[in-house]
Amino acid sequence: METLITDNIEIAASFLRSGELIAFPTETVYGLGARIDSDEALQKIFLAKGRPSDNPLIIHISSQGELSLLTDQIDELSQKLIEHFWPGPLTLIFKKKRSISNLITAGLDTVAVRMPAFDLATSLINKVGIPIAAPSANRSGRPSATSCEHVMNDFNGLIPCILKSPSTNSIDCLTKYGLESTVVNCSGEQPILLRMGSIPFEEIQKVIPNLIHYQTLNSQKESQSILSVIPLSPGMKYRHYSPQAKVILIRSLSELPLDNESKAFTSSGFIGLEASVDSHSFQNIFQKSLLCSSVEEYGANLFSFFRDCDSEHIQTIFCETPPRNGLGNTIMDRLIKASLD
Length: 341
Fold this sequence. Notes:
Blueprint: E1 4-6, H1 9-17, E2 22-24, E3 31-35, H2 39-49, E4 58-60, H3 76-85, E5 90-95, H4 102-105, E6 110-114, H5 119-128, E7 132-133, H6 148-155, E8 161-163, E9 182-185, E10 192-195, H7 201-207, E11 212-213, H8 214-221, E12 246-250, E13 268-273, E14 288-292, H9 295-311, E15 316-320, H10 327-339
Helix pairs in contact: 1-5, 9-10
């Protein structure tokens, strides 16, 4: 199969309408999409990604009106979150309609839904005429794809089409956030954050003060591994976001025995915050390094940096842990999962 890269929405939509997969950009990461009303098309997602069947998918919609196709449960709490954060990088979990395929929901009675804040994605959904189920467009376990080039590296010859933004001639233009959507479960009495993402926990809690994190619930029962949770949301159970290189988390470069004469780390990579690094002692230490001017830049470039290190066959990546607040907590979540053996 030859993979077509196009900026023509109609061409991309025609593949989806005919039951094929396509990859498409959103403001978070690239998605690997199929129409929601074809189990044959949905099954192709799991086969292409090597994705476990108990890992649910997120449905992408282009308007609030499409929610009525998926759920009858839009309560006051859900509506408040929709008004504040949609369109945008927030996924909400509702009780599903019986018509929704069990392939999408992993056999659960809930469905995950989001409305992207990216015109190309919503225009694509409109052209198809039906919502699109789409996990991130990467092989399962690998860092999420934040550029068309990343998708090609994982799926060239495995999917028929990749839609890219017409605003750039380059295939390596990165998505805006570079981190997946935040996921909040609205299907029960208590709103629960299931996956940290591009919208920080604290920002959502300003709107929904009684929001809690699912790990808080776990700690109230007994200490429980993140890998043993029944996954209501993508990103909860399996090893995720992992480059081929070994990921080692450090609080600062002072933890490493660095000097300009040392060659011990020349086959390694480093990503961290510019403000915490003494630049004069940093030169020529690592084979590849990225100093970010802000936590937002760190998040936007993390997965791309992982993939760049893999392309240069770097075996170890040292990652400076970000401040444990706001988006820093999301980045830390991804770093921890990427560092799991």
